[in-house]
Design goal:
The radius of gyration is 22 Å and the shape is globular. The protein has 433 residues and is α/β, with parallel strands linked by helices. The strands form five sheets. A nine-stranded mixed beta sheet has the order 1-2-3-13-4-14-18-16-17, sandwiched between helices. α9 crosses α11. It has eleven helices and 22 strands. The structure holds cobalt (II) ion. Cobalt (II) ion (CO) binds next to α6. Cobalt (II) ion binds next to α6.
Length: 433
């Protein structure tokens, strides 16, 4: 368990942006023998083969072909992005400080970005002899900060007045006259600086994941939502038992935090495109393809809100969710979560067989709650699905809190899922072998 937690911490620390999360996952997949394919090239897929493909550098799909005839897919999806400030301008005129400009991405807990060391992470687009190339950037030093206005000058802020991103949350990084593009050129080894044609960069917290608590039972880290689920499901995917009649899929999608409606997001064509190519390579006709998809099960894995110790009234009292209490199965009457009684029962049974505890999440009946990947993905690929997640606190804060044991819970549950053969015998009845 200690090794698994250390591996999870390494995954989190190595993934300060969606581009880095994809890069980190790709490294683990290559080490496990997965072959990297390009979406823009022809594929020669073989039975039993293991592959991965990326889109926009910020989303990734990995899969194992069945050894024989495809009877259905087993899949899980998590997201690579987290709320953060996106860099819009590397230099802003100012008499006293070197300043950059940023805009919020996703539902940020704005105050959590004040008064902490920050760096930049993402990719720069560099002119090359052939055209344009992407280069990952994540300086291993803290470059920027967003100082808060002290309480002596900010009586309204002390009373809880909201922060304005345009005014209150713009970073500084040095003395007047400096330009961040010089730092980017240095970090990216780009000369001349003008060869940096554009960038996709956000501010990022470098703070290393650390344990907290009398027994080190909790951990704190940036980007736990959703990289902890990404790590747990990927670990289970790699530990799963390949099956002659089942194809296995693992997805990491960008842009969940802004509604998934992008080419590389869960609402894009990425997953249906990959499945269609794999099914074509297996020689499936439309009839077999539709039957196989009806006999598939997907997990939408995104973190769940634990009941807050200081504000238990914000959660559904009948369904408390606690850190280290096990995998959370998420339900919502409005179908923001894909879990039905049936798919919830299947996941609960798989977890029981894996000796992993489960908890149920419902919103307070008078609270709409959030949304996630699964119900959007289901519009593209309408397979049976359930929403699960790791319990966590302080979701969307710059540094979040979760339970150490839950990493093992999710990895074990996912490994069991990717080792079970689920067959929908009749509509509403499944066999689990
Ligand atoms: Co999330």
């Amino acid at each position: 368990m200690q090794q698994l937690l250390a591996d999870c911490f390494a995954f989190l620390a190595a993934s300060p942006s969606p581009y880095h999360a994809v890069h980190t996952a790709a490294g683990l997949l290559r080490a496990a023998g997965f072959v990297h394919l390009e979406e823009s090239a022809p594929w020669a897929l073989v039975p039993g083969g293991a592959y991965y493909v990326t889109r926009n550098g910020s989303s990734l799909i990995a899969w194992r072909m069945p050894g024989g005839k495809l009877g259905g897919w087993r899949g899980a999806a998590a997201h690579s992005d987290s709320p953060a400030f996106r860099l819009t301008c590397t230099k802003k005129e100012d008499a006293y400080y070197a300043r950059a400009e940023v805009e919020p991405y996703g539902g940020m807990r704005l105050c959590s970005w004040l008064d902490r060391p920050l760096t930049l992470a993402g990719r720069i687009l560099v002119r090359s002899k052939e055209g344009v190339v992407s280069r990952l950037i994540a300086p291993e030093r803290d470059l920027l900060c967003i100082p808060s206005l002290c309480v002596h000058f900010d009586r309204d802020g002390a009373k809880g007045a909201p922060l304005d991103p345009k005014i209150d949350l713009q970073p500084i990084f040095g003395a007047a006259g400096e330009d961040l593009s010089a730092v980017l050129a240095g970090e990216g080894g780009v000369c001349p600086r003008a060869d940096i044609l554009d960038y996709d960069l956000t501010l990022a917290v470098r703070q290393a994941p650390c344990t907290v608590g009398l027994e080190n039972e909790f951990f704190m880290a940036p980007r736990i939502d959703d990289l902890a689920c990404a790590f747990g499901t990927l670990t289970g995917f790699l530990a799963g038992t390949p099956c002659e009649t089942r194809g296995d899929v693992w997805c990491l999608f960008d842009n969940e935090e802004v509604g998934s409606g992008t080419r590389q997001g869960a609402l894009g064509s990425f997953l249906p495109d990959v499945l269609a190519r794999a099914e074509a390579a297996l020689g499936l006709g439309a009839e077999q393809r539709i039957a196989a998809r009806a006999n598939s099960l997907f997990l939408s894995a995104d973190n769940a809100h634990a009941t807050h110790p200081n504000h238990p009234e914000t959660s559904d009292a009948a369904h408390p969710v606690v850190l280290n209490g096990g995998v959370v199965i998420k339900y919502n009457a409005s179908q923001k979560y894909t879990t039905s009684g049936l798919t919830g029962a299947l996941i609960a049974e798989i977890c029981r067989r894996a000796e992993v505890p489960v908890q149920a999440f419902y919103n307070r009946p008078d609270t709409p709650g959030g949304s996630t990947l699964g119900n959007l993905l289901a519009r593209q690929v309408s397979v049976p699905m359930a929403d699960i997640g790791l319990p966590q606190l302080a979701m969307h804060s710059a540094v979040e809190t979760a339970g150490c044991a839950d990493i093992g819970h999710l990895a074990c549950a996912a490994a069991k899922f990717y080792s079970s053969v689920l067959t929908q015998k009749t509509d509403g009845s499944w066999e689990i072998a």
